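Troubleshooting log. The previous structure file for this entry was overwritten by mistake, so regenerating from the original sequence record. Sequence copied from the archived sheet and checked twice against the printout by T.R.
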Amino acid sequence: MTTQPRDDQFHWTKQSSTRWRAEMGHDLVGIINQGAQFDVTSTNGALTGNHLSLDAAMAQVEAWGRWCGSAA
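Regenerated output below.
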């Protein structure tokens, strides 16, 4: 049995060893790419950031997505 994600629930997908995809419900919210740091970008370019840890980058994306009320 497959459950559908709620619209307010974040899902993370590791696309490669250096790339993570954030979705809220069925909408893409942002991408994290790992280079020298963990670089955050939103789908609309309104959110950017650089972090020393993956957890910090994920927290930024999740907080921004919740603050916006939906994926942007």
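The chain has a mean pLDDT of 86. Archived copy saved in two places this time.
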